[in-house]
Amino acid sequence: VDNLIVLGIETSCDDTAAAVVRGNGEILSQVVSTQADLLVQYGGVAPKMAEEAHSRAIDWVTQAALDKANLTAKDLSAVAVTIGPGLSLCLRGFYILSGPGPWLCSSDFFVGVCKGREIARSFQLPIIGVHHMEAHTLVARLTDRDLQFPFMALLISGGHNLLILAHGLGHYIQLGTTIDDAIGEAYDKTAKWLGLDMRRSSGPAIEDLAREGDPDSIRFKSMSSPLMDFKCDCVRFLHLVAKGPVEVYVGPMENWKFTAISQLLDAEIPLSLASSHERSSRADIAASFQRVAVLHLEERCERAIEWALKMEPSIKCFVVSGGVASNQYVRARLDQIAKNKGLQLVCPPPSLCTDNGVMVAWTGIEHFQMGRFDTPPPADEPEDTV
Ligand code: KG4
Ligand code: ZN
Prior knowledge:
alpha/beta, Nucleotidyltransferase, domain 5, five-stranded mixed beta sheet, globular, binds zinc ion, Glycoprotease 1
């Protein structure tokens, strides 16, 4: 196991990332190229631009990951690459990685998958398709080597909000998801709306600004979480879970920005104050937004943990991961929730919460050890065209 060396490649959103990780969890290198300039220019992630930026960065990012690890591709045991999320937490992409090229996949993953296939083909290495959200989850088992299944996890990122019960490798029960925006997107929209500098990722910008503000200064239309009145008992919850994604309302919503924040502007903050770019008033908005957004998460997590513990009393840990989990306020609040419920919070360090290649490499290692990998694409196959 210790001799395993896996390269992980991640290009599913706006970061081009690669890392080399050893089977024992030792991180040999980690390289991330962000598309901060594009974010400023376009005010968000523009898929076509993101793909072009990935194409420009992918070669040097993977090479830098190998160089920093003092290795060449010949030394690798396998290549792992993000191929999803698809609609569910299964790993459907597995079997098609080695099929005849060019491999068809959503353009979001195309660049990374092509690079992964190219390396696997050239050096005849096994290739492992990795689900992005599973990678966010399992990286907690790299940072906390004692973390055993089953455990609960909350995954909070720019595109997803998921509450899951992790039973085993590749075996996850979805307890809840957002019915509209993910919480990271709400942070991003609020940052944009407040005119914060997008060159700093907007989540951290809100987090910083919120430290200066008074979280109780602004009354949102709904001071409690949007589904607070939606009290579901266990049976109802189960029933709802079976129905899939509409059951649990995790994460703040579009209309917090469009109704709550904008109405509050009209009603409670003198418009002149907000538009004067007065830093303190923007800090109050950031702090109040963050408080309500996270309050909502807390309440949903509490309920989901209670439910999960009834089903699976052996759960000891509550994993919180994904970009938003790098937020210190989020971590502190959810730590309290976990403690109240008798669970231990497991939260990877911030650099492993946001998108990275380490989580992909590590998830590849976990699957590889279980014999779940794909054979290399045929060496004489024509190259994929990016
Ligand atoms: O997991 P991630 O890096 O990419 C996706 O899979 O989406 O998450 C990115 C999201 C962005 O919405 C970003 O604003 C948010 O995570 N984020 C934060 C913080 N750092 C990143 N949100 C709040 N506070 C932070 N410190
Ligand atoms: Zn992510």
